Amino acid sequence: MDDVGFESIFSTPENRSLEATTADELLKQRYTTNETTVQPLVGVSENQLLEEVSELVEERLPALNNEDKIWNAFLSNSWTSVGVTKQWKTIPKGCKFAPDGSCVISAGEDNVLRCFNTPQRLWTHPETQSADIDLNEVVTLKEGGTVYDYQWYPLLNSWEPETCCLITTIKQGPVHMWNVDSNELVASYRIFNHLDELDSAYSVAFNPQGDKLYCGTDGIIYVFDTSRPGRDCEKRDLRKTGFKGIFSTIAVNPAMPSVYAVGSYLQTVSVNSEPDGMPLCILEGHVGGVTQIAFHQDGHLLASGGRKDDIINIWDLRYPGKTYLVFNREVTTHQKIQFNFCNKYLISGNTNGNVTCFDLVTGAPQERNFSVDCVNGVSINPKLPLIAISCGQRHFYIEDNDAEKKYKLKNEDLSLQLVWSGPLG
């Protein structure tokens, strides 16, 4: 595989913008006469383009930056389904919006990752989205084994195809980097154990700059330089510090990139620091193995949730070892039930088909039902008041020998929903 160009692509140039590019695309379409092809603008500076993008967003979505939009939508019961893909033949394993909000991806139990574009109408005319919008798969990535984890490249920019990358980790295979724009495998990061056998990563995470890739195995963190695929990496054996178990989830602090957290199936969370990666503290308080951890945008709060564990612990890292808040949800399976921070709120799925929105200030919860099945994935679009919800779980059947039929023990809903939580009109 030709790795030429990786250093230039996955380095951290100072001029690379973290802003959304979908709005840029819409603005360019506004200035071009060709409806099918977006042509570059002539005589328009980048600053002028960004200014007009801001004006366009403010004009179309006046409440886009209102942090209370989701909470108020909960209270007014005004969440509106704008797109549903139904009758999946596989169970979705969560969902994640791209960093620029241009698309959402979901992995299935058939080892395929499916990518869907955010409907263009939601960027231009959200007031007309009352009718359902069809979601069509624009990209499908076929993996060779069970998908353990997947993460977007944090500096993804839709106008720079070489940055439209996704990391996946699978059972008994290397960590893969895919280019979603070209639907190609562009790099592999290989982990070898003490017997020089290929090992699997159970979790992966980028740092905010995108130049480091963290991979979690059984008791060990491997750190790769993103620009150098292959087997060269830094090995950090945390078992020597007393922190053991399968590392099922990793999160890097967005405000303090030198701090990252690791969740273990042994019901504990370790907060580590660079450059040696040694633990600063170990947090306990779960009755099930930790399946997800997430940092708040300000870097002070850390949330952790586990399998068959009905609580989400919120930790204030300024006072480690003591829970700041404890939220209750329903998790009755071993699935990873996703949650996400959104300013002063935290939104989580539940196995009873509800989505719960928690206020981080008052602790008050609000619930809405979106499915007859489990809601295992919740992802918030970073640029629009739009939420993706994935539903589904494994179902067991009972047999009626007399009728020679099989019956499901409960209703099944395998779907990906997009829910609009902002103003209409």
TrEMBL record:
Which PROSITE patterns does this chain map to?
WD_REPEATS_1 (PS00678), WD_REPEATS_2 (PS50082)
Q: Which GO BP terms sit in this record?
A: Cajal body organization
Which keywords label this protein? Repeat, WD repeat
GO cellular component entries? Cajal body
GO MF annotation terms: RNA binding
Q: Where are the transmembrane segments?
A: none
**Sequence similarity:** Belongs to the TCAB1 family.
Record's protein name? WD repeat-containing protein 79
